[in-house]
Write a structure and sequence with these properties.
This is Asparagine--tRNA ligase. Belongs to the class-II aminoacyl-tRNA synthetase family. Pfam families: tRNA-synt_2, tRNA_anti-codon. One of its GO terms (cellular component) is cytoplasm. This protein is an alpha+beta fold. The protein has 2 domains: about 10-100, Nucleic acid-binding proteins (OB fold (Dihydrolipoamide Acetyltransferase, E2P)); about 125-420, BirA Bifunctional Protein, domain 2, CATH 3.30.930. It has 13 helices and 16 strands. The strands form 3 sheets. Strands 6-10-11-16-15-14-13-12 form an 8-stranded mixed β-sheet, sandwiched between helices. Strands 1-2-3-5-4 form a 5-stranded mixed barrel. A 3-stranded antiparallel β-sheet has the order 7-9-8, with no helix packed on it. Helix 4 (about 130-150) crosses helix 6 (about 235-255), helix 4 packs across helix 13 and helix 11 runs antiparallel to helix 12 (about 380-390). The protein binds 4-amino-1,4-dioxobutan-2-aminium adenosine-5'-monophosphate and magnesium ion. 4-amino-1,4-dioxobutan-2-aminium adenosine-5'-monophosphate (4AD) binds near residues 211, 221, 358 and 360.
């Protein structure tokens, strides 16, 4: 059954002066005896419903007085503009029906709760206004990624979750027993997308990926959502441009479609509005020099850690690409720079405001012999990569791609302290419940 004719709170501005019915939950109650203010949410928005004693039958008003936090209700009444009400609208209630009375005192009260308590109650915490806003923004980001890529001739193909071949090194692999054989949970669908470009040209996936990361930081999850994109006949420079356009497209969409949600999160969206392309590009070597100047003792040849990324980004208001990492510290599939063979044609996109790497990608090695040499150098079992090597035997072409970490991007857009708030049910080093 289509839902199009139902009233949702997000459309309140179109129903001023009309009688409406809202089905939802009571998240706040204020009472002055003869007037009760029920703050309602219906999933799409929030409103204040004002119940005046004389306007209801005695029986109905007695029912209203029973309502506790998180009780589910159906409310009928007149929708009015009311400047003093939070949100600017109000329902003058004619009838309230209790659908389900909350049985016990709701554990998440008005007082401040610590992160541990909130994470244990994540299933309830999701109902809070802030978490609602984050879920809505996450959805808008996902929607705009899909939209942008489809418009840019990428098609979505989905990569498997179970794989015999490591994509991003062996240290963060989750091993599983696949009916007596060793298998891994996917760290990234990239290698499979590289196979699919020979069928469809440009493609992407959007899956949860898993990494047994021992790092307990504000930016790391064990399970997170990654969008991998891959394109045939696209070189290093072009894949950076695609990423720039994608990021601007997403920001633009969120700024335009999620104003009230960004406001609710107290996110200054002006900062996001100022993001423009092209994003500055610096080489890894330049990044190391800048960091050393800033007092870091980082040495050429080590990967940029969280603190290095933050320190570097304190000096940029735009996202920046760090390019040309030493091939040694990048994955086996990276193509080498033609001029300096010790460098990989890879790039990390770092977000400003301390959010670190939001995408990683580059051009892939398309030569069979060079790729084979790299696989051997990494001491991977050739048998597990034979299928991947096949791609370089039959019509191999220059190609590039990147992976975008959804939670990192959402954390930056919402300016959150920790990525754990950007995913409905975070999986972290010390937590996989609820
Ligand atoms: O840089 P990564 O490891 O790149 C890849 O996996 C490539 N195979 C992607 C590709 O080229 N198709 O991961 C991509 C992005 C990072 O830039 C980061 O934003 C995010 O995934 N990411 C994480 N997000 C949350 N928690 C973690 N533990 C993450 N590890 C990476
Ligand atoms: Mg990376």
């Amino acid at each position: 059954m289509s839902d199009n004719n139902k009233f949702y709170l997000k459309d309140s501005n179109k129903y001023i002066g009309k009688e409406v019915t809202v089905k939802g939950w009571v998240f706040n109650i204020r009472s002055s005896g003869s007037i009760v203010f029920l703050h309602l949410r219906d999933g799409s928005g929030f409103i204040q419903a004002t119940v005046i004693k004389g306007e209801l039958t005695v029986k109905d008003f007695t029912e209203v007085q029973k309502i506790t936090l998180e009780t589910a209700v159906e409310v009928k009444g007149l929708l009015r503009e009311e400047k003093r009400a939070p949100g600017g609208y109000e329902i003058t209630v004619k009838k309230v029906q209790i659908i389900s009375l909350a049985q016990e005192e709701y554990p998440i009260g008005k007082k401040e709760h610590g992160p541990d308590f909130l994470l244990t109650h994540r299933h309830l915490w999701l109902r809070s206004r802030r978490q609602w806003a984050i879920l809505q923004i996450r959805n808008e980001v996902i929607k705009s990624i899909n939209e942008f890529l489809l418009k840019d001739n990428f098609i979505r193909i989905d990569s498997p979750m179970i794989t015999p071949s490591a994509c991003e090194g062996t240290t963060t692999l989750f091993e599983i027993d696949y009916f007596g054989e060793k298998a891994f949970l996917s760290q990234s669908g990239q290698l499979y997308l590289e196979a699919a470009i020979y069928s469809v040209g440009r493609c992407y996936d959007f899956n949860p990926v898993l990494r047994a990361e021992k790092s307990k930081t504000r930016r790391h999850l064990i399970e997170f959502w990654m969008m991998d994109a891959e394109a045939a006949f696209v070189d290093f420079g072009e894949i950076l441009e695609i990423q720039e356009e994608l990021i601007l497209y997403i920001l633009n969409h969120v700024i335009n479609n999620c104003r009230n949600k960004l406001k609710l999160l107290e996110r200054n969206s002006e900062i996001l509005t100022m993001i423009k392309s092209p994003f500055p590009r610096i080489t890894y070597k330049e990044a190391i020099k800048q960091l050393q100047k800033l007092g870091s003792d980082i040495k050429y040849g080590t990967d940029l850690g969280n603190d290095d990324e933050t320190c570097l980004m304190n000096h940029y208001k735009q996202p920046i690409f760090v390019t040309h990492f030493p091939a040694e510290i990048k994955a086996f599939y990276c193509k080498k720079d033609e001029v300096d063979n010790s460098l990989a044609l890879s790039a990390d996109l770092l977000a400003p405001e301390g959010y670190g790497e939001i995408t990683g990608g580059g051009q892939r090695e398309e030569d069979y012999q060079l790729l084979l040499k790299n696989i051997k150098k990494h001491k991977y079992d050739i048998a597990d990569y034979e299928w991947y090597l096949d791609l370089r035997k039959y019509g191999s072409v220059p190609h590039s791609g990147f992976g975008l970490g959804l939670e990192r991007l959402v954390a930056w857009i919402c300016k959150l302290d920790h990525v754990r708030e950007t995913i409905p049910f975070p999986r972290m080093l010390e937590r996989f419940r609820p």
